[in-house]
Amino acid sequence: MNFRLVFRYLGLLLAVLSGILAAIWLWSAGWRMFGNPSSPLVIAEQHAGWSFLICSLVGFLVSGSLWLWTRRSPPQFGRREALLLVGLSWILGAALAALPFLFWSFFSGRGASGHPFGSFIDCYFESMSGLTTTGSTVLSNIEDLPRSILLWRAMTQWLGGLGIVVLFVAVLPTLGVGGKKLFRVEAPGPDPEGVRPQIRETARVLWIIYLGLTLAEILALRIIGGMNWFDSVCHTFTTLSTGGFSTLNASIGGYNTAVQIIVIVFMIAAGVNFALYFALLRRRVTGVYKDSELRFYLFLIFFSTFIIVITLMAAGNPIVLTRVTETGAYEEVPATFGNSLLHGMFGALTAQTTTGYCTADFNQWPFLAKAVMLTLMFAGGCAGSTGGGIKVIRVWVAIRVLISELERVFRPQVVRPLKIGSAALDSDMKLATITYVFGIVALFAVGSVLIMTLEQWLNPAAGIDYTTAATASIATLCNIGPGLGGVGAVENYGWLCAESKIIMCLLMALGRLEVFAIIVFFSPRFWRGD
Questions:
Q1: Helices (H) and strands (E) in the chain, counts
Q2: How far apart are CA 392 and CA 382, in angstroms?
Q3: What is the DSSP letter of 461?
Q4: pTM for the full model?
């Protein structure tokens, strides 16, 4: 194992993150300079500004030390090194991303007990949730945060959307062949393939598409939705990354219908394989239209929306929104067709694309609607998208394999090749798909048991229930954000014990890196190099 080379590139990656922290410090300083000095927001920003400056200096110091230590490292870069670099990038990157929260807690002088971030574990949970685009939060009052902290929360999700490692490959051509190995570990999906012959060009094309969609949504939210520029940028960052961090306690439910519709459009776009956008740019419209995964993805969206809308209208109960009225109660609207369609589609999309935004408290929905949303949480977005979950293509392959095996029971003499579109699936792909689906289900079950056990043992006064434990496990493993019960749409994760949060941080990393890139670290053969 070439540890020196791994730490060399890790140092360069930390330098990139430190540069972004420094840029946010400069933005904070400029905003304070031109803002009202007596404004509470400007006063709060002073403490946050110092935290970003110190964090960037710490990051540059660590990255510089790593570079000096490893500058003469041998150039060999294999698959083990790629796996180790990607895993450490998320683990240590989340630690660096957590420091602004921690230092802001220190400089604001409110102490651990009275601060939104009660401990380093809370800070790490928030940053890991950001970089993995999970969207789970420990905060009960988001609107109390300084603007630079809110921007950093959104930025962590935007960077994690296509992956900070993909960005790393795009801007550092010195990786060479190692870059291709890195990209294949980081890029989501069962078989990531480049849209261009060279992997560096692939990463650049993906980021250009990502930047184009980012600019389009910012302008749409500002011009059509009427959002201010700051909120437009923050919500664009967390929509296209399918992250879900908001600047309001009410999430997207705190904005008008036009904003909610714009977010729906871009959530759909974020859940699509980004390689299809490249195909559209090359005018390969027929190939996009015939893509099996895209068609199944859209079918799931509209079919699940139909079921939820019918369920909400049939129940006839008012839809409880995430907005709070002047009396302190959550606002309610009647379950008309229009309201059911808007909030039902939004709920279906936020579950399937794993974005995690909320406009309504789906905890109050009928059982069938919640069951549909839970199913969509497992499915996730398309391979090659910023969405989490199992991925639509794997679900589609698993269904086709199941149907094929059922047919073999009563027609064993028939040999029918299994195809997805025009491509035949070999036995290795079938086995890999079924193994991955089984792995997700097994991790979900283990995570549920661990969270339930830890809470009952270490935090019995909280009174956790099985629904909360199970959906907390799936919401973090599949990078969704909100679950049901005590971690539902209008709740947060701050009340859980520190040990449970550590387990959920691991689940977030496992889900973001598609399980095996982290699990291999527990294999002795990985370290021995057998």
A1: 22, 4
A2: 5
A3: G
A4: 0.91
Please give the structure tokens belonging to residue 269.
Answer: 């776009």
Give the number of C-alpha atoms closer than 13 A to the C-alpha of residue 243, restricted to the C-beta side: 31
The answer to whether residues 76 and 6 touch, using CB atoms and an 8 Å cutoff, is no
What pLDDT tens digit does each residue of the chain (530 aa) get?
A: 778 888 888 898 899 999 999 999 999 888 777 766 667 677 778 888 889 999 999 999 999 998 888 887 777 777 788 888 888 888 999 999 999 999 888 877 654 445 678 789 999 999 999 999 999 999 988 988 899 999 999 999 999 988 765 765 655 555 555 555 555 555 565 555 555 556 677 778 888 899 999 999 999 999 999 999 999 999 999 999 999 999 999 999 999 999 999 999 999 999 998 888 888 888 888 878 888 889 999 999 999 999 999 999 999 899 999 999 888 889 999 999 999 999 999 999 999 999 999 999 999 999 999 999 999 999 999 888 888 899 998 898 888 888 888 877 777 776 677 777 667 777 778 888 888 899 999 999 999 999 999 999 999 998 899 999 999 999 999 999 999 999 999 999 999 999 999 999 999 999 988 887 788 888 888 787 65
Which residue matches tokens 């907005």?
Answer: 323
For residue 312, give Cα distances in angstroms to 200, 204, 351, 376, 386.
48, 44, 17, 17, 29
Under a CB-based contact definition with an 8 Å cutoff, are residues 380 and 242 in contact? Answer: no
